[in-house]
Amino acid sequence: MTSTATAAPERLFSSRHLPVATGIIALVTLGAFENRAVISIMPTATRALDGLAWFGAANAASMVTFMVAVAVAGRWVDLVGSRTVLLAGLATFAVAQAVTAAAPSMAVFVAGRGLSGVAEGLIDVSTLVFAARALPEHLRAKVFATFAAAWILPSLLGPGAAGAAEALVGWRLVFLLPSALLVPALLLLLPALRRADVRRVDDPATTVPEAGTPAPVGPAVGLATAVALLSVGGPLAFDGGDHHLAGLLTLAVGALALVATVRAALPAGTLTAAHGVPAVVALRTLLVVAFGGIGGYLPLMLDVTHDVGPALAGISLSITGVFWAVGSAVHGLDAVQHRLDAAARVRLGLALIALGGVGPLLLSLGVLELVPGLAGWALAATGMGLASPSLATEIFTLAPPREQGQATAASQIGASLGSALTTAGGGALIAARHDTLDGGVFALLIGTSVAAAVLALTLTQRLRAEPPSR
């Protein structure tokens, strides 16, 4: 009998990959703290600036600029490498936080949030490319798992820290705190950055594109402009001011721009969820509408309908982070990977989102109390943890190596579009009812998101590259 020596599998946190792993976790943690703290303090900040009617526009601003930044970053990374783009994104992040914190008016506040979207787009794309080029392919799933795990601590501490900072000093400090975390994050990242962009020149997945290779920047700008017009048009038309007609005209122009640009900005076949990459992009968009359309308004809903402060309203964000990580951990189990294909995992996740979304819906109407209502949200977050990494890894499986960067950018643009449109629509409704906000408004928003999850459930079989043979 002979024995065969087998090499131990590479681990994400081995000495070889430790600088990359810790650097990525530091970046994700930084973004998570900023996201959780800012979302939980947004209702307080908009009220302080007498801009509740512009709540939707403030939320949508970063999503709009994110679309353009993603398209620019994808091309930029291929030309100069991930390190330059990543450092530019971190510098933009610091400036954006300062502008928002010092905002004397709602207009400056919205501009600061827009600049934050630019930073997020640069950081997100460069981080994904950085990880893909620095780590072997079999460690990608583990990297995605660390993304979810890195959100746990910020989700637990971020909302409470935001509430405490607001109570002690004021809401402006909340926007400065993430900048303080930038220094330790950068220190952890520096060892990995020194090794960044060391690529095999014969690797087709990392070959610099030829001059003249088209980039989807123009369509992304058009799409972002459409979303911006829709986001601004809602408050203008429905906030009760004397610019009602101007707002309606802005909405009409935005709708026309959306129709004119959406096909060019997304892969062909996305609007019909064609098999393969287009279906992934379509499902990612609907997934964000379903989950983000509920979670984006939970803190405001709790503040308005249950009269809770920022710290308690932010508990929904803590639930999101913890249970999203739980779902991601389940997704990464060998038993789940072997028994359920990507379509089945996405289907299960969407079903949990649709079922769990009923909890916040009934909570907004006063049918459920706080604890059972948020228990439903925990179930939805678990579903997101299952569905999101399944789509993220499937895009690399379906896209050819030379198109993986473009496919990843398209998926992010689709997700940002879904989030921005959900926020713009909700913002218009809130602007129309900002003087008489009640649970019925939030029930309508949450119900629409639950319907999006049900619609997405019918499309999961299209994740296959080709239609199933009969």
UniProtKB/TrEMBL annotation:
It is found in: Cell membrane. It comes from the Bacteria. The keyword Oxidoreductase does not apply. It is a multi-pass membrane protein. Residues 20-464 form the Major facilitator superfamily (MFS) profile domain. One of its GO terms (cellular component) is plasma membrane. Keywords: Membrane, Transmembrane, Transmembrane helix. It holds the Pfam family MFS_1. GO terms for molecular function: transmembrane transporter activity. The chain crosses the membrane at residues 12-33, 53-73, 85-111, 143-165, 171-190, 220-238, 244-266, 278-300, 312-336, 348-368, 374-392, 413-433, 439-460. PANTHER family: MAJOR FACILITATOR SUPERFAMILY (PTHR23501), MULTIDRUG-EFFLUX TRANSPORTER RV1634-RELATED (PTHR23501:SF154). This is MFS transporter. The lineage of its organism: Bacteria, Bacillati, Actinomycetota, Actinomycetes, Micrococcales.
